[in-house]
Amino acid sequence: MKKQTSTQRLLFIALLAAQGIILGLLEQAIPVPFAFAPGAKLGLANIITVIALYTLSVKEVLAVIVMRTLLTTLLGGTFSTILYSGMGALFSFVGMYLVKQLGPKRVSMIGVSATGGILHNLGQLFVASQIAQSWTVFLYLPAMSIVGIFSGVAIGITANYLISHVKTLGFYFSQQNKPMDE
């Protein structure tokens, strides 16, 4: 595949960020689907994070995450939303990046995404523990981890499917960021 120009790359980054914002706002409009874990969400915008992780450089992925988190919060959140979302996104990104480094023969995109689902919840519980000034909020971790695993698997399956369509658009993948089936 032919390498994309910097303008095309910036456009791709902006499109990913915009799609993440739309998915984030859409998810805010959906009632909480998990009765056993109040406050848990599916994390639809993380589809975009996983796609970015497999198509962009680390710096560019961070740009997408920051833009998505800030703009989604400005359009439909509160100050606490940015704390919870930001820390969840940071924990999730670092964990997914590190697990992805194990390589596609050891961990699939679905496994990387499930890791992100669990760590996103861990990041949010960390913020909650700091606000509440108590570590007892981590008692909620098992329930949140179950939701994180299932939603992470669903996000990973979706991202794995969508990445093939990104390839058909002719988007350039660096050697470090080749999709799973190449």
Automatic annotation (TrEMBL):
Q: Which domain of life is it from?
A: Bacteria
Q: Where are the transmembrane segments?
A: 39-58, 70-95, 107-127, 139-163
Q: Does the keyword Transport apply?
A: no
The UniProt keywords, alphabetically, are: Membrane, Transmembrane, Transmembrane helix
**Pfam entry (one):** Hpre_diP_synt_I
Is the keyword Transmembrane assigned to this protein? yes
Write the protein's name.
Answer: Gx transporter family protein
Taxonomic source organism: Granulicatella seriolae
